[in-house]
């Protein structure tokens, strides 16, 4: 017993300082505090802006697991062009009634190869297209022959249309992170209403952002105010007097000196919902490594709300695995891979996982040979999240690509390339400021240029493991850098911590 006691004491003496060192090594951001009850306290800047809550993204805001849908149709591999057989199955299931669960049913594509000369289209609610594995031994859909195209296109139709009357937001300044604001009259609104929080573009905003002063080259277009009106989709959670509370936060400050903001109810007639794509390998035929006359996008979503893409792999496409267009909202893209793109390595190619929509979640992804692997486009309205994903042999940078994306979280991204949020100047036809309220959290990079725009908000580099660089134009305001090269950031994932703070389990 005496020997055991001496041994235990020795271990304690040896390990005690080590345990103390590990505990002291952990650190937290000055912008927020994780409390013992899992809630989060956010610390505002001098204008009241905070890091927003990014957790209400993805399929049904992350409050529902991806469903298992009953198989109602099975398709076997066929010789020759299989596109007709798959499209016929989709059309057949599209004619079925929608069940109480919101689905018509799932179509199972059995293991094997499906050569497709054209494209496959889903235009109807409640359909799941599933395979039996995203490897060569599973279900393989092949974009055969020539023709730059999306192999699988899931799309409703329509657009945002205004209903009711617009009302002005009366606060002089609504900071990023806010979930409520005052309006001139809230009489026409109630909890559950779907609204647009509208932020107009103005000439003085463009001027103060210096986007009417881009150094010109052939094809450069200075920014125009009427091209930068932003429409954020939100749902009202409460109305108290003339105070409106919303589900997802403001991700770009609404400032009266730049036109403030307005609110109106909206419809989106023709937008579909509850469509899923699962467990499929997508490949494109190609003539050579720089061939561009072949399959361009594996899976393309637009005009759809509450859908998902899970466990898919793409190989040899010119643009990417998944592209979500501006009408795609609350989509989860999960456990998917984009490998070995075939194209010239230059602009408008190799956007492995591309997002132009709102409230979308990209999680557990992997890429090789991409350019802009996890990327948003012009005027992309957040919040959106890229989480726990890896890129290798990348040829450009991750991040907002051009022309003012607002409200994106890049959380635990691991890349051998760069993550950049910057003024891209006259690249393209005048990319200019790529974005605002872009949060780079606990990411591993080769290098990063994180700048904040002259006005309208900040960008954040918190716990970045990698070199800090000046970027394209080094004379721009620095972003909020904190904890460069420091490990053990707490919370390790902002997205997961924000989920837990509202009582939602973390994704598997």
UniProtKB/TrEMBL annotation:
Domain of life: Bacteria
Protein name listed in UniProt: Pectate lyase superfamily protein domain-containing protein
